[in-house]
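Sample pair:
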Amino acid sequence: MQIMRIHTDPSIRAPRAFPAVLVALLPFILWMSAFAVQPAHAQTPEDDLILSMPGGQTMEFRPVALGTGPQPYANRRLLVGDRAAGGFKEYPTVLYIGGAFLFPAEDPVDWVFYMGKKEVTRQQWSVIMHPETPSADLEPVNSISWFDVQDFIHRYNQWLYQEALDQIPRLDQYPGFLRLPTEAEWEFAARGGSVVTEAEFDRRHPYGRNLLKHEWFSGPRSSHDKLKKAGILKPNPIGLHDMLGNVCEMTLSAYQVEYIQGRTGGFVVRGGHFRTPENQIRSSLRTEQPFYKPDGTPSAQAEMGFRLVIASPVFAGRETTNALTEQWEEYRKDRPTPGSAQQSTDPTSVRTGSSLKDAQDSLTRIESGIAQAKEVPEDVLTSLGLLKASFGDVQALMLKAEKDSAAAWARMASFTAWFLRNELLKLPASERVLEISRQTGKSADIAIYEKRHANLQANIRDATAQYGVILNELIRLQPETVAAGFQQYEQYLIGLGLVEQIKMNQTAIRQYEEFRESKRLNMDEWVEALKTLQ
C-alpha cells in the first residue's frame, strides 16, 4: 500500500498557516491512502512465463495480478468504458474479474491470469498451423478469422498437453489452458492492472504524454499506416507490448452495447491498430466484428489479430471445490449483484435505497396477502408492523450517515486540492535551486537539493493519487448531499477569510462534477488546472 508522505523543505517558504481543523485532517489523509489498491506482489521481468512451441519457438506470458489476495471468491471491481471518448458504446460500467492461478505458487498472495506478452506473430502461427512451411515474419498474424484462431488455440493446447505439460501453470494440480481473453480481462490489463494508481488507471491510456514510445498508430509520426513487428516499442506498466496499437485484438466476449445487457451480436475486438488515428487510441476502445461477412465467409481484417491468455477451470479439483463450497455462505452476504450499466455506477446510497425499496415492495405484497387471510396470529401482525416501521428508521439513518460522510469527504477534497496546488507552486523554485547547485559543482549541495526536489515530487505524486481516491469516494454519494457538504465547508472558509482555499474549494467542486459526469479521473488536466489557477 502506498502511504501519502508529507515531505517538508525548510528552505522553501511555507504558505499562510491554515486552521487547526485542517491540520487535524492530515492524519486522516494518511490513513485514507491505505485504500489505494496495490498489487500484493511486485512484478518483475523474472515473472515471465515461457511456453514452448514446435520448431524451437516460444510464447511469453505475463502474470496479471488482481491485487485482491488469495481468498477463493476474490474478484476485482473494474470500471470499464469511457463515456467522453466512446459515447454510449463505451458507457462506464462496473464489471468484475477473477483470477485463474494463485501467485507465487509456493506462497500464494494473489490471484493472477497470464496474458500474452506480445500479439501472436506470423512465425508463431506458422509453427502450429503450417509446420511444413514455417515463417520467419515477426509481425502480428492478421487477416485471420475468429474460427481460425479457435483452431490455432485447440492445436496449440493439444501440443502443450502432449509435449510440454510441465510448463503450464496449475490450479489444484489441474493444468491451465489457452484461450482468448475476455474483454474485461483485456481492458484491465490494457489500463495497467493493479500496478498503477486509480488516477493512472482512469487515463485514456497508461502512458501519459509518451504514447509514441509505446504504441503504433496511423500517420508518419508512427506506423506510416503499415503493420510493424510485435514487441519493438516499450511495454505498458505490466510488461505487455502493443496493447492499444499495431493490430486490434479479438476477445472471447460476445458484443453487447452495454457490456452486461442488451442484444448479443458478433465478437468484441479491443484496441486500435496501425491505421487508427492517434487521438482515438484509448484503453476503452471496443468494436463489434461479425463472425461472418454478408456472403457467409468468416470475417477477417488486415488490421485484426490476437493475443492469448492462460486460464484454468473454476472447479479445478477437490481442494478448490471444497474451499468454494465452505466459503459460499460468507461470500454471498456481500457478493456483487449484476445490474444495468447505469445502476453499476450509481451512488452506493442509491443502489442501497433501490434494494430497500424492493424489500418494502415485498413487504407490501406480504401485507396484502395477510389482509385476505381469515385468521392471522396477533404476534405476526405485531411483528409485521414493527418491521414496516423499522424501514423508516433505516432510511433516516442512511440519510444522516450520507450527509456526514459527504461533508467529511468534501472537506478532504478541498484541502487536498489546496495542498497539491501549494506543492506544485514550489516546483519552479526548487528546479532553479537544483540547477544552480549543479552549475556550481558542489557535490554536497547537489545531494541536498536533489533530495529536497525528490521529496517535493513525491508529495505531488502522492497527493495526486490521494485526490483521486477522495473523488472516487465522493461519486459514491448522492450529488445533492455532496453539494451540501462543499457548500457547508465553503461557508466555513468564508468565515475565516481564506480566499485561496475558497478558490480551491470551488475548483474541487468543478472537478468532482466533471468526474461524476465522465466517470473517469482526468488527473493530468485537473492537476494542470490547479497549478495555473489565478
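Residues 1-41 have pLDDT under 50 and may be disordered.
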